[in-house]
Amino acid sequence: MALSTIKKFVLAGCIALLPAAISLAQRKVAPVKKIPMKAEHWTVHSGKASFEKYKNVDAIRLEAGGLVILKDLDFTNGTFEFDAEPLDAQDSPFVTSYFRFQDRGESEVFYLRVGREDSHKRNDAVQYSPVIKHVNLWDLLPQYQGPSRLYNNDWNHIKIVVNGKQMRAYVNDMDRAALEISCLEGSVSHGTLALEGLAAFANLVIRPDVVEDLPATMGPDLTNHDANYIRKWLVTQPVELANGRELSQAELPGDQVTWEMIEAERNGLVNLTRKFGTEERRYVWVKTTIKSTAELKKRVQLGFSDEVWVFVNGRMTYVDKNLYLQGMRKPPNGRCSIENASFDISLTPGDNEIMIGVANDFYGWGIIARIDNLDGIELLP
User: Fold this and answer.
1) Residue 320 to residue 329: CA distance in whole angstroms
2) Greatest alpha-carbon span in the chain
3) How many helices and strands in the chain, by DSSP H and E?
């Protein structure tokens, strides 16, 4: 090939690449923000916090119940990483970071559960949960946890990558994620950062919009491929339920009660906290209809938090409690899951009304319901 021809090919290639090069040059590189662990950059929301040198680095030392909030930050997507050392892992096991923090009522949460041996063998060593309407929903979302090697008397390095609806968290091992969340469940999309727990915190760095290869759209909900979940219900407004009082047939709602539609979220969860919040002990009724072709018996798997009274065609069929603080914890450890319970229901030909009284007691409340098979029946909206 002649030299002049080669020059033409090279020139043409350079011209073709020029727009991309200009675009890269014009693209802003996200700044790295090294956050000073100094009092003027933080709001002490609760408890005691000291801003001091700890192990030769600037750090925030929090006492139990201490919470500090970073000033002048609006974080949506990106990466933040920091070091955290528990100061009394046995008596105060939670080392917590909040992101997209609006206030104590709305945020996303990632925390370490320290103080135990062999944390790399414990599925709840690291956990994610949203805070919605001032309620940490850890008891409704037992799937958002995993094992990790934690240090009870030394720094733990934590790196969290957030993009859209997904999160990836690394703890001490930056090559392998300790937790991958395919759908952030909070109701907020942006906010600041906050730190909590009896611990020292240092070396906080934020990289806005640096999300590595993490997708922004939520990952698949595998239960979407399972037709046996009951996803559409009607629900009443909450009513106060005095401690020790039980629901009975006499409390079944009459014609004067107003019903609203509520649909299950991911994993079949009917999330009553998202709709109503959690206050003192209250209850609602939820109901749905199953159309049967004959007299049939069906097995129901029911996840619930915290108490349920199940009626089929007006007759009490099942009563149970999943009370974390009162020693009545259903597997897995008092959290809402279809592992909680299973029982049979008897259906008659035609429409069958399934009505469940659900009461809250501790943190989040809701139900998950699944029928063993749909042979001879239809789930009606």
Assistant:
1) 11
2) 98
3) 2, 28
Do 78 and 207 contact (CB within 8 A), yes or no? yes
Residue 98 burial (10 A CB sphere; 0-12, 13-18, 19+) = buried
Helix ranges (H only) for 188-288 are 272-276
CA angle 241, 243, 249 (to 5 degrees): 50
From the centroid of its chain, how far is CA 56? 35
**For residue 186, what are its two tokens?**
């909070």
Dihedral angle, C-alpha 217, 222, 228, 234, nearest 10 °: -30
CB 262 within 8 A of CB 301: no
Handedness of CA 182, 187, 190, 192 (dihedral sign): negative
Instruction: Please count the CA atoms within 13 angstroms of the CA of 43 that sit on its side-chain side.
Output: 11
Q: What's the gap between Cα 222 and its chain centre?
A: 17
- Among left, alpha and beta (phi > 0; psi -120 to 50; other), residue 64 is beta
Distance of CA 42 to the CA centre of its chain: 26
Mean pLDDT by runs of 10 across the 381 residues of the chain is 46 44 42 92 94 96 95 97 94 95 97 94 96 96 96 97 98 97 97 97 98 96 95 97 94 93 97 94 97 98 97 97 91 95 98 98 95 96 75
Question: Strand, coil or helix: what is 132?
Answer: strand
- Whether residue 263 contacts residue 233, with contact meaning beta carbons closer than 8 Å, is answered with yes
List the structure tokens of 277: 């919040």
Calpha distance 377→209 (Å, rounded): 49
